């Protein structure tokens, strides 16, 4: 009886924590909606005629892309890992009864011999997730927040309450890009008013909101552009944030150099082959997130062991 009650308490507590994780998402959405409302009011008060139409059209287009990308990056869920990576109950039992680590490694090696795996652990063993009871595909990592293994995991982001991964990296990159463009646009079109009001110190009503919007755009733009530049670097190198901190270990018998297959191909790996869809948050990423093309060492580059 008491055990049941404590289990219920734990499950309620976990559910409560899961709800709390949506607070940063609500905050970010609130800021975006606030910025939209204030900007529209400000533009309708300060401009008229064709100028107003141009300002509003550009703003609505940029912010529509921001909202669309943000929604896609939040809602995308990591693709289910194929059944062949999951240990069957008899093999899992065998693993649980193994006498030592060497025997565990042998069982996993035998199990994964036909799987498309090029990476391994530092000690040469097969990458395995004890929580999900499955062999991890290349570039896949277990996320403790999402409580599952995530294909081509980049990082877990609290602002989207989701992992940035194979399923939504394109959307995440587009979201950062449109957010930077949106911030620059807001800074440019509110600069004169913001600067004047700040200098004279006469802030009241909507004017105060415009100045707040200006400074919010400066702060947000600065932090986002830093993140965007870093992800441009990762995109060019075909690396994830995790891999930039800890290089993947390739099987020594494969002579693999890296996932960097040249700028154009690296870009198309994430954005797909159709240039008309590159700017839209529509899923066009190549592959299934399980097996990735690699660059091999040239014969003269093969490191001597
Ligand atoms: Zn896992
Ligand atoms: Zn996660």
TrEMBL record:
Any single Gene Ontology cellular-component annotation: membrane
Main subcellular location of this protein, as a coarse class: membrane
Keywords attached to this entry: Acyltransferase, Membrane, Transferase, Transmembrane, Transmembrane helix
Record membrane topology: Multi-pass membrane protein
Superkingdom of this protein's organism: Eukaryota
Written domain comment of the UniProt record: The DHHC domain is required for palmitoyltransferase activity.
Protein name per Swiss-Prot or TrEMBL: Palmitoyltransferase
